[in-house]
Amino acid sequence: MTGPLVRVEGLRVTVGDHPIVDAVDFTVAPGEVLALIGESGSGKTTIALTLLGYARSGAEISGGTIEVAGHRLDQLGEPALRKLRGRVMAYVAQSAAAAFNPSLRIMQQVIEPALIHGTATRPEAEAKARALFRALALPDPDHVGDRYPHQVSGGQLQRLMAAMALITDPALVIFDEPTTALDVTTQIEVLQAFKAVIRERGTTAVYVSHDLAVVAQIADHIVVLRGGKIQEQGATEAILSIPAHPYSQQLVAAAAPRQASTGLASTQTPGEPPLLEIRNVVAGYGGVDRNGDPRQTIVDDVSLSIRRGQFLGVIGESGCGKSTLARVIAGLHPAARGSLALDGNVLPRTIAERSREQLRRIQIVFQSADTALNPATTIAAAIGRPLTFFHGLKGAALDTEIARLLDIVRLPAGIASRRPGELSGGQKQRVNLGRALAARPDVILCDEVTSALDPVVAEAVLDLLLELRRELGLAVMFISHDIETVRAISDELMVLYSGQKVDHGTRAILLQPPHHPYARLLAASVPNLRVGWLDETCSGSRGAVRNAGGTAGCRFYPRCDLALPGLCDTTPPPRRVHGGREIACHRSIEDLVAAGD
């Protein structure tokens, strides 16, 4: 077709009389990828959904022109729009796990749009689906469709959702934060698959994200949004290299590699035991066998210690045991084996066995602020409960302390009367942090607290954590899959893979080789804020490239570019100590240094 495939002019979306998207104009040429970026609440997803002729409950498309492949969506009723959705316009959501029906096989769900719209017979649709599985670099493309959603990984499920969107050869595909919840190595694989399919098929796409480094790898043009309005738009390279609008400049600055924090000398008295110490912890799910071991081990023989005022970073992919480890320390999930100690005293494994004082001293801040906060409870009640439970505060004293905590986490006092649904993602995460601080803890466990936040808000939350650590002397265990962020803010860094500790040392030591091959892969997988980086990145060691052999060997063996067949697949790796760091690897320190140079 001649002219743009997508044309949006004067778009206005309102909730009641309040505009949440106002005066938005942009076009997308055939075969082009346009990125919509901005902070939480900027209108990115709202605008993307209008390209399906859809507004979420309570919102209304109240003005403007929306044209996709010659169809004026703003002039069509719901029956006509239903005929276009899934055929002319397709949607890839952020959470594939929530989008798939767990009771149906994958193939049945992937081909459903083709059958509904009559674009292919069932045999034709299944053959096309298998071709898409190959194009999206899915393992076992001929049989992966026979599985149920829970039988594949998160990254594979995200690619399968893309196959579902592409099965009808739509004119436009909308990708709504499709890699936000993925760890960095999986994200790279998914991005490579998406980009390859988009190129091969000449797909026109709108890509919603708050991650500029991801956008740099896949988008031709960028629209920068804030408060429902366009701040700037232009070619990707121009926006990234010479942003004109102050907000665009702020986004680019926040997405750049973070400068290392100055750190804080531990407030631990020499000779004192560590504030928190765990030794040889084993934990998992599915009950225990006759030997007392979990039937499904998630954390396997992990030891660590945290001193007063120390920032310990824990990194690894989804499923490596990071969150389970935090839950074990918090007492939410009992360890099957191993010991826990607080100030040198035995720490019971479960919350039910811990004293009120032990509960107060260790607090956890969960990844999802939406599920961690009761939607029916005001912010004042959420923060006030631990103040009353642990410190007996009531009345005016309680109100005063709630106001003080809101000020500490940089929230206005007026927010106390609101409920979580009235706050942005960053505000809710600050409330979560304020609620944890209300207990006046010694240790805070932060579980992926910035992974779903836009760069500007995430940077503000990290700065707040570092400031609170300096002011209050808190010990922090910061869990993340972002090695660059963790290296910038942590005193020590521990790398987990498949439940086991593979690399551990101080930040200064970990900035230089030797590195465990997995730690090196993590560092190499962090997207660079540069157009073309993804195309230049070698993916040779990113997938399972060999059979794992027996379970007795190194768990990273199938993906390791330094693996020694006959040794790494049969024998557990030794723990090598070098200059104050610990690495679990069969390779010599000299080999690891050479690989990292």
Structure characterization notes:
The protein is α/β, with parallel strands linked by helices and 597 residues long. It folds into 3 domains: 6-255, P-loop containing nucleotide triphosphate hydrolases (Rossmann fold, 3-Layer(aba) Sandwich), CATH 3.40.50.300; 276-511, Rossmann fold, CATH 3.40.50; 512-597, no CATH class. 35% of the residues lie in helices and 23% in strands. It is built from 23 helices and 22 strands. Strands 16-17-18-13-19-20-22-21 form an 8-stranded mixed β-sheet, with helices on both faces. Strands 6-7-8-3-9-10 form a 6-stranded mixed β-sheet, sandwiched between helices. A 4-stranded antiparallel β-sheet has the order 2-1-4-5, with helices on one face. The protein is globular and about 75 Å long.
Summarize the structure.
The protein is 35% helix and 23% strand. It has 597 residues and is of the alpha/beta class. It has three domains: 250 residues, Rossmann fold, CATH 3.40.50; 236 residues, 3-Layer(aba) Sandwich (Rossmann fold); 86 residues, no CATH class.
- Classify the fold: give the CATH topology of the largest domain: Rossmann fold
In CATH, the homologous superfamily of the largest domain goes by the name P-loop containing nucleotide triphosphate hydrolases
Overall CATH architecture of the largest domain: 3-Layer(aba) Sandwich
Strand numbers in spatial order across the main sheet: 16-17-18-13-19-20-22-21
Q: Which CATH class of the largest domain is shown?
A: Alpha Beta
Helix content: 25-40%
Tell me what portion of residues adopts beta-strand conformation: 15-25%
Strand tally is: 22
Write down the overall mean pLDDT.
Answer: 89
Euclidean distance between termini CA atoms: 50 Å
The number of distinct structural domains comes to: 3
**What oligomeric arrangement do these chains adopt?**
single chain
Low-confidence stretches: 539-550
Which shape, going by the Cα principal axes? globular
Structural class: alpha/beta
The biggest beta sheet reads: 8 strands, mixed
Tell me the number of helical segments per DSSP (H or I, 4 or more residues long): 23
CA-based gyration radius: 25 Å
